[in-house]
Amino acid sequence: MLETMRWLPDENCLELLDQTRLPLETTFIKCHAYREVAAAIKRLAVRGAPAIGTAAAYGLVLAAQNTAACSQKELIEILEAAAGELKSTRPTAVNLSWALDRLLGKLRAAVFLDRASLGRLLLEEAHAIYNEDVAGNRKMGEYGQELIPPKASILTHCNAGALATAGYGTALGVIRSASEAGKEISVFVDETRPLLQGARLTAWEMLQDGIPVTLITDSMAGYLMAKGKVDLVIVGADRITANGDVANKIGTYSVAVLAKAHGLPFYVAAPFSTIDLGLASGNEIPIEERDQTEVTHLGGYPVAPAGVQVWNPAFDVTPNHLVTAIITERGIVWPPYKENLKIIIGQD
Prior knowledge:
CATH architecture of the largest domain: 3-Layer(aba) Sandwich
Oligomer: single chain
Radius of gyration: 20 Å
Number of domains: 2
Order of helices and strands: EEEHHHHHEHEHEHEEEHEEHEEEEEH
Number of strands: 16
CATH topology of the largest domain: Rossmann fold
Helix content: 40-55%
Strand order of the largest sheet: 6-5-4-7-10-15-16
Largest sheet: 7 strands, mixed
């Protein structure tokens, strides 16, 4: 299994696979401080909603290890500030705040523990988030593969694989599970401009697994569907609101509209931690906007005239009526999402 990250106990640090160097180079970076984790998240060395949540949890562990706080109260104050910095790196993905709030909750609930014990408590919780994510992705794959016919051509957008999680993947986890179940699967992956996560990462993952994969440009998806070359679409998610609206990598909405126009199922695979019942609809999701050079440059070289204005949202929102079903590690959620998402979360 691809390792997006690993905790090195002998060095008390987090090692991250630098995804900005893939697929040409496999390089790991070591983070000894939480701000190094924050920087890695910000520059997309680690990316994908579940992965950045898990990495941030370990980042908070590093913050606890490196503080000279004398009391639990002081430690909580310091870690709340560190968590705020980590949360600000990628505001759209709710898994980031979910993981950090989970660790802070453990810290606040602890009683009569010294600082070393509190540090161990946080590390155990970060390990739990990591292990739960891998196990949950495999369970998600088991549920999701039941939706895939014995022979299927699948289109996916961006990267929702092992690289975007602690391991195995969400959307690609479903595809992997279908392949492991003996189904005849092939995958179309669009390049996913402007940062080419589909071309660089998803295509690479599928090749590593020996799953037939074909790369297309983003603008080819509609014609691909019109030619009858796609049976269904599976994507991941960075946040799902109470009504089933889905925030995912920019371009997902376009693919969903095209799938609807061609009568194709459009599935979203995401852990329950991606579901944010605190937001009524996708209109309330904060959408991260990134540096204009991601659009004006490619591989460090300019591809647009100097001085041109750029709009570069990293995500878009797909409205719930375009989503056929949401695949989670707790089961498959069908419309109506307002009622059924509450049930899957346990708030029925």
